[in-house]
From TrEMBL:
It comes from the Eukaryota. This is Vacuolar protein sorting-associated protein 52 homolog. Residues 1-127 form the Vps52 coiled-coil domain. The keyword Protein transport applies. GO terms for molecular function: syntaxin binding. Keywords: Golgi apparatus, Protein transport, Transport. It comes from Nyssomyia neivai.
């Protein structure tokens, strides 16, 4: 009895197992009337159609698997399923093509049909699983349609943007070393800028890399009265591309279920002509471009937009960005080297002899500050080398210009004014520790020290000479030799006592008139007075007691000096 019970239990378990599997198989194979009704008659956008389409896809997959076993049940349902598949695909194909054709209507916001397609992305998956030719047809239709739409849009947008560009552009007559007054005759026409400094000054143009980077794109018909620099138009165009291309890439990867090289290939089929058009437009512009700052800003826009694409997980534009850089960099280097050469070839005698900052120095200061500022987040070795070459040429030019002044004092005034200008601009626009700023700071310090000696010499040269000659005697304890200098020292003391106030007034007047920058003048004056007091203190140590009694008290001198420098403190 027990054996029989165990046997019955095993049979029951087996039957239940078979029943469950058989029930599932029958359910998978059976084609309910509701499914037939839904697939045949229900519109594709309704939930029932999508639900039964999933079931149909499952049954078709199962039939494919079982068809190798020549199962009778497969033969029973194959024809019905095949008819349903054809009907479903016909309806889906018509729907997807209808959505694709919506893109072709003028003024269409193609995000709407794209979103509709994404909502029913299973449709394409169904077609791809069951009829690759139809899937290829839909894909080709989409590629052809969107390719034409993007090409048409960007072709139109680019041409309308071009109309917003400043009419006045930099030319070969707007290089750094070319003087402002280009010779003109009745038969020659120059196209140099009215204000050459705009080529070398960044102003607010750098905003395209910061607050304007993701600003809304320019709408040409709304901006007809405004004019823009090239980099502003370039930013708008490239940002429009980034926005459209990223959305397109993410759409095709999701809807057409492609990844990696397949996604890249499909994207290229859609956007290829458009990208070629944009590259050609840039090539056309830069052929005659002499605006280094514009091109360098474009390079940095490319770097930032490439980074933006990567953050959006869109690598599809990498080759495009590389191509753009490959177009811009050679021209940028050529123009940069042309500027360097123009400074190298510059003839100092053609310029008016003025001791203030030279126009070429001013251009260099603004230009180098602009380039250094732009490069801050994305340093570039080539640009660093070019900047160093330009810096060396400008330094040589400043020295050549200084050489046309007859006296050393005038040369030093010229050098200080120019070094001070460059350093001031660099300090204002870039980091304090930039290599360029450090180089000019060293030059300014050296020339300032030399200038101070020059302006003190006419008035206090005797004391300075006395200190330099007699200090070694004091160090070697040659006291007898020092005493022999008493007569000379008394004459110096007498001369100083009668002339020092007048001398200081003359120095003050001379320094402030020589330097257009009040800060520079005050700094040099303070340096001169500091040096004078130091020499005076050293002079005091070298005097005999008799001579010291006749010397003006140093505190009296300090009080007088405070007239010229309220913050003076020693």
């Amino acid at each position: 009895l027990q054996k029989k019970s165990v046997s019955m239990s095993v049979q029951l378990t087996n039957r239940q197992s078979v029943r469950a599997q058989l029930s599932q198989f029958i359910e998978d194979m059976a084609v309910p009337e509701e499914m037939i009704q839904a697939i045949m008659e229900t519109p594709v956008v309704e939930k029932d159609f999508l639900a039964y389409l999933n079931q149909l896809n499952h049954k078709l997959s199962l039939v494919k698997e079982l068809s190798f076993n020549e199962s009778a049940s497969v033969n029973d349902v194959r024809e019905v399923l095949e008819n349903l598949k054809i009907r479903a695909m016909t309806k889906i194909r018509a729907y997807l093509l209808e959505q694709i054709y919506k893109f072709r209507k003028p003024m269409t916001n193609y995000q709407v049909p794209q979103n509709a397609m994404l909502k029913y992305k299973f449709f394409f998956e169904f077609i791809l699983s069951n009829e690759r030719q139809v899937a290829q047809e839909i894909c080709s239709e989409y590629v052809d349609t969107m390719g034409k739409i993007y090409f048409s849009y960007f072709k139109s947008y680019s041409s309308r943007l071009a109309a917003l560009q400043f009419e006045e552009a930099a030319s070969k007559d707007d290089l750094m070393g070319i003087e402002d007054t280009v010779n003109k005759s009745l038969f020659t026409k120059t196209t140099s800028l009215k204000n050459k400094s705009t080529v070398f000054t960044i102003g607010n143009r750098g905003d395209v890399l910061n607050q304007q980077l993701e600003a809304p794109i320019l709408v040409p018909h709304a901006q007809q009265k405004n004019k823009y620099s090239y980099e502003a138009l370039f930013r708008s165009e490239q940002y429009a591309l980034v926005d459209n291309a990223c959305r397109e890439y993410l759409f095709v990867t999701e809807f057409f279920m492609v990844r990696g090289s397949q996604a890249q290939e499909l994207f290229n089929q859609i956007m290829g002509r458009t990208l070629s058009l944009l590259i050609k437009n840039v090539e056309t512009y830069i052929q005659d471009c002499f605006d280094c700052i514009a091109m360098f800003l474009c390079i940095h826009l490319i770097l930032r937009y490439q980074l933006m694409c990567h953050k959006r997980c869109v690598p599809a534009l990498d080759k495009y960005w590389d191509s753009l850089q490959a177009v811009i960099w050679p021209r940028l280097e050529f123009i940069f080297r042309s500027n360097i050469q123009s400074v190298r070839d510059c003839d100092p005698t053609k310029f008016t002899r003025e001791m203030g900052p030279h126009c070429i120095t001013r251009r260099y200061a603004e230009f180098s500050a602009a380039i250094v500022g732009i490069s801050e987040h994305f340093p570039n070795e080539l640009m660093s080398r070019l900047l160093l070459e330009l810096q060396n040429e400008v330094e040589c030019f400043i020295l050549r210009m200084a050489a046309i002044f007859p006296s050393r004092k005038e040369q030093l005034i010229y050098l200080i004014n120019n070094y001070d200008l460059v350093l001031g601009v660099l300090m204002e626009r870039t980091r304090d520790n930039s290599k360029e700023a450090e180089a000019f700071r060293e030059q300014l310090t050296a020339r300032s020290g030399e200038y101070v000696e020059e302006i003190l010499a006419p008035h206090f040269g005797g004391i300075i000479q006395f200190v330099r000659e007699c200090e070694p005697m004091l160090e070697k304890e040659q006291m007898e030799e020092l005493r022999r200098q008493e007569r000379r020292s008394l004459a110096l003391v007498a001369n100083f006592s009668s002339n020092w106030k007048t001398a200081l007034e003359e120095i003050n007047k001379e320094v402030l008139l020589s330097f257009p920058s009040l800060v520079t003048g005050q700094t040099l004056l303070q340096l001169a007075l500091t040096n004078l007091l130091q020499y005076y203190h050293r002079f005091h140590k070298l005097l005999t007691p008799n001579a010291r009694t006749q010397l003006v008290n140093i505190h009296v001198i300090k009080m007088f000096i405070k007239k010229y420098s309220g913050s003076f403190n020693i």
